[in-house]
Request: fold
Amino acid sequence: MLEIRFHGRGGQGTVVASKALAFAVAREGRFVQTFPEYGVERRGAPVVAFTRIDDVPIYIRSKIYEPDHLVVLEPTLIGAIDVTEGLKPGGWIIINSDKKAAEFGQFAGFKVATFDATSVALKYRLGSSAAPIVNTAILGALSKITGFVGIDAVREAVREIAPVKKDENVKAAEEAYEKAEAEQEQS
Amino acid sequence: MQKVIMGNHALSWGALLSRAEVIAAYPITPQTEVVELLSNMCADGDLDAQFIKVESEHSAMAASMGASAAGARTFTATSAQGLALMHEVLHWATGARLPIVMGNINRAMAPPWTIWTEQTDSISERDTGWLQIYTSSIQEILDSVIQAYKVAEQVYLPVMVVLDSFVLSHTNENCDIPDQSKVDAYLPKFENAYKLDVNKPAAYGGLTGPDWYYELRYKIQKDTERSLDLFVETGKEFGEMFGREYGLVETYKLDDADTVLVSSASIASTARPVIDAMREEGHKVGLIRVRVFRPFPSDLMRKLLEGRKKVLVVDRNISFGMSGAFYEETKAALYNVKNSPPMWGYIAGLGGRDVPTNVVRDMIEQTMKEDHPSGDIIWIGVKK
Amino acid sequence: MSDEIKWKKESDMPLMAMSMGRMTVNKTGSWRNLRPVIEKEKCIKCGICWKFCPDVSIRLDEEDYPVVDLEFCKGCGICAVECPKDAITMIKEE
Ligand code: SF4
Ligand code: SF4
Reply:
């Protein structure tokens, strides 16, 4: 079983990112479970969401305390909260950032990859310029970097889940898939 | 059709596939999405139903009762304070023998304000005569709505399909949405033999003295008992048609188990991987997930638990001054049995406190360590 | 619909309290010790007595004058109190 934790801020599409990943994986015939950490949701507040992936039905119904991998949609959360809490050694940390992976020296022992999903979201006018919605772009990047799910399934899932601008969201995911680099590993 | 849907939408899909004809509901967190999707389904013409907007849950149930009395297949959904506000009319729905199906999202009761899961809301309604199914997966929620109508309409009793707030209501997972034609074959159109009919005027619910009220209660109890067999029969039939069989309880690795964990809903689901892990270490542990809580499957529980070494019951609800409800009922069922096992009653996860695998494991291990339970209630993880 | 409950055991009953008999079986006329007498001359056919009778024992004849059904009139005297023209007098039953 793969357990992935998403970090973002309210209004960025963090919960939808975790759902879109699940939708995509389900399209490949696997079992998924996804849910946000429920609180009183407010724009800007830190948001956590979870996705489980397995080849067999998933019975465990607690939160994910020791994720295999992380997706960080909002780089300013790093430092503000301990995003790596419980993260298993060697796990991926996929960060939405225009910085290089090597600049995140604090994440030794994990595999760090960065992708500037904000630029892609702005390019396709997803969300507003003040609050771009980066989830579909980060999902394209995740597909390329980790190979957890194929880009075809991502494309279909994004089309299914995006409430507006379906074409633009699909393009954002595709562009992210093409541009993201899988090799940005760090020891 | 395979889809990934949330638990709340599984209720809506269940109502759609059951061809509910009237929906009267009032939104409340965490049930809102049930009503949202159903109103969309009605507005889009996917569901040919009257959607009645009401001003409170009491009115939602009152409107549902009117619709059901007129012979319509009726659906509603609520949670916590909303369910409590319905309390008076819940009794009425049973006494009037109205086969309404209602989704209830288990949310802890206020105060203090809370939206997270706990079963005390629906447990508080256990004596209203509503049949209660506690679900543990998104698929089971959808399937249970369809099955609920099938049982309700044979015994003329209302059924509550219960699911955990957030842990099920807002969790998205794989769900097979059955074909409408197959559901139609499983659940044909309902002809209510007692429906309001202007051509056959009758008075309903009129003053009934001690000379016959007693008999009417007797009849409710008899039909409630009959529903036990119906849940099994209709669950089997469901399995034959849709490949997913349902019963009164679900057992897991139970056959040779010395120590048996009894629970319900999401905690019982999380317990499965714990049982797997402990089995691998050589412990003879097994699991019973109670699915149908009303009527309580006492006979079956006796059969399954008699002669076991130890039984622990984990409740996400509390009857203050006594203990957890599943524990009470399991204990009561085994009281007159010769080889009644000692029974541990744990309270866990109130107000949505997460119950991860290590907590489930702690409870099993504590039970295995002790000779006798230390009291009627064992709290787990209180910050002292 | 029958006036009287026909069943003798629970298995013959409907599932719910449905048509549990009518009040017409209850001949409240036997309770009466006072009887209303209406003076047609004073009556203005306002129908107030008809409206107020708690046992629905007053009907109106073809000319809209009130007539008391003594099978059900229990002699409560409400009609006499409510009549605006004092057209109804309660007299002792023998
Ligand atoms: S005395 Fe009472 S019962 Fe008789 S007619 Fe007058 S109101 Fe009716
Ligand atoms: S209330 Fe008096 S006046 Fe009016 S209808 Fe009756 S008897 Fe006549």
In short: The beta strands of chain C are 34-38, 58-60, 66-68, 88-92. Chain C is about 10% helix and 15% strand.
